[in-house]
Amino acid sequence: MPGEETHNIEYKQKWNDDCLKAISAMANTNGGRLFVGLDDQGNPVELKNTKKLLEDIPNTIRNRLNILSTVELDKRAGHKIICITISPSSIPVSFNGKYYLRSGSTVQELRGKELADFLLRISGIPWDSCAEEHSTLKELDVTTVDEFKRLAADRIPGIVNETDSSMLLDKLNLAKNKELKRAAVLLFGSDPQRYYSHAVVKIGKFLTDTDIQTTDIVEGNLFQQVKNSLEILRTKYLQSHISFEGIHRRDILEYPYEALREAIINALIHRDYHGFSQVQIRVYPDRMIIMNEGSLPPEITVEDLKRNHLSKPRNKLLADVFYFSGFIEAWGRGTLKIFERCRDQGLPEPEFQNDHGVMSVVFYKDQWNEEQLKKLGLNERRIKAILYVKKNGKITNREYREINNISDEGARIDLNTLVEMDILIQKGKGRAVQYVLSEN
């Protein structure tokens, strides 16, 4: 028996126009299957004229929705059920002049701005290159524009002398028919959230995934969001340790400042602004996660981020302006810089994740965190022992036996293995032997 209805599974007791509406929604989302002859709980009901329906349904879908589908007969518990399989469509699919999307197990009609964004997205037109209606030059933040001209002087000779904002936007391809493009509003607007309330950075301090201590929302244009996000992290969320090079004092942030800046910029310029989630920065005791809505391009994998790769920005205009300002390179080296800066500071390699339409980069505070230890293939006993050492500074054979309820021989084997893996260092002799973390 099928389970409950989901985003890609729908049940209908009989064939009618509601079926066509659901099919159009699935075609506009991620595809799916519609079962005719099942109630809302997935229980079979009597379905008449199945032979005729098997002939009529494919033709009706083709004629009314202009898409093809697979229609098959399925028999369950002595009942005949029709299964219709729908593939995602590369063009918008309308039903009776309206457009629908699948959201959870429901069908939602698209209207207004949501409909316009959907049609743009499915047509392949970049979100940031569309004109923003009713926007004007008066909405530009003069301070941000002037700062950009100063930063871009090396890559756009003569730009510092450009006093006409309209000419400046034209040179950057940020205006269309005297209207600001969305990229211009995001980059230089004095109040981008007037148009895009979701275009903010949300920072939170987490003790666990459910225990949140404090939250900050960073608004403003993208240049302001980069600057202010970094400043809030530096002063409120992260710690620094002090070192001296001769007489010069250095405050070193627990995560490399340059790597954080690169990751935040990546999240802002590569995010999918069609969605309504914010860029999130989650600060945990042992790690920090920077995440944005929007998957990697199909031709780029997570492993590619560790080596030279093509630059494929989702929002090209945003990327171009950040490039002109000197904040990013145009060669796809941003992720390599993140790896390099973490390595230079003696931190573990950050982890990039591309999952369910969300891109994340995870920075780890130390190399002996639980996630890293699992990747090394350590069992639960050995991980528990290393976490014990992190908390208490050392561990003995007796302590290992007590926390793991293991024999003396088993503890000795485990501890020797951790020494051989260069995770623990043995100190002392005889009964005074204790084990501490390696500094490698």
General description of the model:
This protein is α+β, with helices and mostly antiparallel strands. It folds into four domains: 9-110, Schlafen, AAA domain (Methyltransferase, Cobalt-precorrin-4 Transmethylase, Domain 2, 2-Layer Sandwich); 127-194, no CATH class; 201-364, Heat Shock Protein 90 (2-Layer Sandwich); 370-437, Arc Repressor Mutant, subunit A (Orthogonal Bundle), CATH 1.10.10. The chain is built from 14 helices and 19 strands. It has helices at 17-28, 50-65, 112-123, 142-151, 165-171, 182-188, 222-237, 257-270, 316-324, 334-344, 370-375, 380-392, 397-404, 408-420; strands spanning 9-12, 32-36, 70-76, 79-86, 94-95, 98-103, 106-109, 175-176, 179-180, 201-206, 212-218, 240-245, 248-253, 279-283, 287-293, 351-355, 358-364, 424-427, 434-437. The strands form six sheets. It has a six-stranded mixed sheet, covered by helices on one side. Strand 8 (175-176) and strand 9 form a beta hairpin. Helix 8 packs antiparallel against helix 10. The chain is flat and about 85 Å long. The mean pLDDT is 89.
